[in-house]
Amino acid sequence: MNAKKIKKIVVLATGGTIAGQASDPAKSENYTAGQLGVGELLQGMAVDGLELVTEQVAQIDSKDMSFAIWQNLLGRVAHWVVQEHVQGVVITHGTDTLEETAYFLQTVLQPAKPVALTCAMLPANAPDSDGPGNLKDALAWVQRADAKGVVVVCASQVHAGHAVQKSHSHQRNPFTSQDKVMHPEHLHVPSVAKVLACQQWPRVELLLNHAGADGRHVRTLMAHDAPQGWVAAGTGNGTLHHALEAALLDAQKQGAYVLRASRCAQGGVQSREADVLPHAGALTAVQARVALLLHLIAQPSPQIQS
Ligand code: SIN
Predict the structure, then answer these.
(1) Which residues does residue 234 pair with via DSSP β-bridges, in sequence order?
(2) Is residue 119 in contact with ligand 1, taking CB distance under 6 Å?
(3) What is the pLDDT of residues 240-282, one digit of tens each?
(4) Is 137 in the pocket of ligand 1 (CB under 6 A)?
(5) According to the 3-state scheme, what is the secondary structure of 174-189?
(6) Ligand 1 proximity of 123 Cβ (cutoff 6 Å)
(7) Is 196 a member of any domain?
């Protein structure tokens, strides 16, 4: 057989608990994420008839995810998915910001080949670590003939990358997905090239409506260090305390893009006649923030300066 024709699966590693090490394996809650390299994660995991290509894209706890790493990851996924002999891409990632990375990659790339993010809730040296099983499942998923697009493979489940959210802080299966999540039509999506070329990402602040929300930090930031965008995780159907709403309306008048989501885990925001600020539909607040970052990158020029 011509070696060049062997199908490949590309494994891109970014760190996370799946690559974590506990100082004492018997006390697996005390660990540091992002310690093992991609080669160590894959030890003993051959895939019949396929070549495994590996790259260590980052080595972080995903709470520290950055735009630079997103760009690097996007560039590597975009590079590999168009190679004829690549069957699919697996990305190892921490669970904490995995939903943001999954939404980002799916929205910008919409890959025709499978791209499976996978993770773990227990570090690699815990006796009952879930990482190896999740990684095997992800490698199996990208070999399926019907698999395409960005998904999250965890705890024997597969979630669509644009709909997944981490909804539990410590159980083995921390993810759920929402139904009918659509990217809002009024938010534009930049090309892959534009995202990769972006040298200064817009600033989009995320805030929560709550009892006593007075909008003071919105007014303070708009006066001194104005971000280009605000996402407000409103109460219930995306409602905002009248004082916060007034501050956000003033921010909008100053040129900031304001978007409402819901702080509820499920359901998003549905349109009402009395709406005065746009909303992000079914997107969660963190997805809405990714969508707004992308929308602002897609604009011909920055919308606001402080
Ligand atoms: C991380 O997100 O990198 C740490 C937590 C995890 O992977 O579960």
Answers:
(1) 262
(2) yes
(3) 999 999 999 999 999 999 999 999 999 999 999 989 999 999 9
(4) no
(5) CEEECCCCCCCCCCCC
(6) no
(7) no
For ligand 1, whether the C-beta of 62 sits within 6 Å is yes
For ligand 1, say whether the CB of 134 is within 6 Å of any of its atoms.
no
Give yes or no for a contact between 149 and 106, defined as CB atoms under 8 angstroms apart.
yes
Q: Which residues of the chain have a pLDDT value below 50?
A: 1-2, 303-306
22 and 70 both lie in a single domain:
yes
Question: Parallel, antiparallel, or unpaired: how do β-strands 149-154 and 157-160 relate?
Answer: antiparallel
pLDDT reported for residue 301: 66
Residue 195 domain-assigned? Answer: no
Give the pLDDT confidence score for residue 5 in this predicted structure. 76
Q: What is the 3-state secondary structure (H, E, C) of 225-280?
A: CCCCEEEEEEECCCECCHHHHHHHHHHHHCCCEEEEEECCCCCCCCCCCCCCCCEC
C-alpha 18/C-alpha 15 separation (Å) is 7
* Å from CA of 262 to ligand 1 middle: 24
Q: Assign residue 253 the CATH number of its domain.
A: 3.40.50.40
198 in any annotated domain: no
Number of domains in the chain: 2
Q: How far is the CA of 121 from the centre of ligand 1 (A)?
A: 7
pLDDT at 46: 84
- Which range of residues forms the domain containing residue 257? 203-298
Please report whether residue 303 resides in a domain.
no
